[in-house]
Amino acid sequence: MNFDNQAQAYDQRVGFTGETISAIRDFLFSLKPEARVLEIGAGTGFVGIELAEKAASYTGLDASEGMLSVFRERAAERGLKPTLVQADADKDWGIPGSSCDLIFGSRVFHLLEPEHLSSEILRVADQGAILASGNVLRPKDSVHHGLRRILHQLLREEGYEPKKKKESLSKVFSSVSDGGNYTSKVVSEWTRPFVPADAIASWEHKHGLAGNDLPEDLHNAIVVRVKEKATAEFGDLTKAMELREFYQIDFITIIKP
Fold this sequence. Notes:
The structure is a single chain. The relative contact order is 0.16. The protein is globular and about 50 Å long. It has a single domain (4-253), classed as Vaccinia Virus protein VP39 (Rossmann fold, 3-Layer(aba) Sandwich). The protein is built from nine helices and seven strands; from the N terminus they run H-H-E-H-E-H-E-E-H-E-H-H-E-H-H-E. It is of the alpha/beta class and 257 residues long. Strand 4, helix 5 and strand 5 form a beta-alpha-beta unit. Helix 5 runs parallel beside helix 7 (165-176), helix 6 (143-157) crosses helix 9 and helix 8 (196-204) packs antiparallel against helix 9. It has helices spanning 10-14, 18-31, 48-54, 65-77, 114-124, 143-157, 165-176, 196-204, 216-234, and strands at 36-40, 57-62, 83-86, 100-106, 125-137, 183-194, 241-253.
């Protein structure tokens, strides 16, 4: 997926507050103080800039040069010089072996090929390093969750399987820790206004749906059908409502063979 054209609006779309970003930073460094950090999917640095300021060293990897350009500007404003690597995480990362104590990704691991991701993690991690994955969760009875349910149903009808975050994450964690169980921690929670119509509209401009790259005509047709089905189920999609969200970090200690 190409995120270059989303770089300028990415932070606004993600919508994390400073309080949430600080909670993510503080929890990660409670797991591994003064760590050598590698962030996969560093993006514009909305979290990475805080990690870079506190880490013994920080490397951010992202496929989008547009995203990393925003990160560099942000870092320069704060007098920081993080190592930023433009690379496809589904290919060679170009990062030295055994060079990281903390490997983190926010809302990204489920988009990557699990076997390659696990292999590169084991290569770049030092023994005893921490692997941590952050994700935003919503209540299963929320309209947001309902929109995702409708989208996934329509994708399956067209022969596409939505990528499942928990399943992908479990595969990676199992591969890098000899089958060990991971631990989960909610580090921040908040409530925000949510307009279902706006969420559906944002899908019109996304590259891919639920981790699948689709032909443009099919992509557009599915978004239209989501709107139709959601209107039938939930009513007026332009009406704002309160949405509870949680930021959860799943983590495990890496065991190298």
